[in-house]
């Protein structure tokens, strides 16, 4: 199975469950939600980080379902990228990107980013932003390799109430 056999297509509502499952497995070790849980001890408010991270898919669908693109391997969802558009500012944002662990390192993540950037250009936007955790070495390598330049580092804090 090669990345070349996989095609990227628009999200369909029938992808919802698969994308949520992929999100929860793919983001282990590289999500703020898990960092918060590890720092404060979980579960928080009766929910684990997987529950909170999976809800990002709901946000992505509500924000711009037409801007979610799925990597489809013969009917199986093996990756996806989500987008948000601020038309007035001319800004495209990529909130989430994931590729199934067994298919990583074959250029699929790059293909999804290029697809999102082409979508932004077709929508007439002027610039694109994406963020990653400092602990996510692959994200940082991939984004700069795809033409993004680092513009800021943010520090997150949390406390139990
Ligand atoms: C980030 C992710 C989508 C990349 O998917 P992918 O299909 O493996 O991506 P690609 O094969 O196109 O590229 C991977 C890049 O990471 C690099 N890479 C691989 N392992 C690495 C490591 N340990 N450290 C640094 N870079 C690494 C590869 O060299 C490649 O960069 P290049 O294209 O400049 O050579 C995938 O790793 C993933 O789903 N991770 C978990 C979720 C996540 O981190 N999402 C993004 C959060 S912002």
List keywords for this structure.
alpha+beta; 18% strand; Aminopeptidase; 3-stranded mixed β-sheet; binds coenzyme A; 4-stranded antiparallel β-sheet; 161 residues
What is the SS-derived class?
A: alpha+beta
Seen as an oligomer or otherwise, the chain set is: single chain
- Cα end-to-end separation: 49 Å
The CATH topology is Aminopeptidase
CATH superfamily: Gcn5-related N-acetyltransferase (GNAT)
Largest sheet: 4 strands, antiparallel
The SSE string, one letter per element, is EHHHEEEEEHEH
Strand order of the largest sheet: 1-2-3-6
Query: Number of domains in the coordinates?
Result: 1
CATH architecture: 3-Layer(aba) Sandwich
Strand content: 15-25%
Ions, cofactors and other ligands present here are:
coenzyme A
Overall geometric form: globular
Number of DSSP helices? 5
CATH class: Alpha Beta
List segments where confidence is low: pLDDT < 50 over at least 5 consecutive residues.
Answer: none
- Determine the mean pLDDT: 96
Q: What is Rg?
A: 16 Å
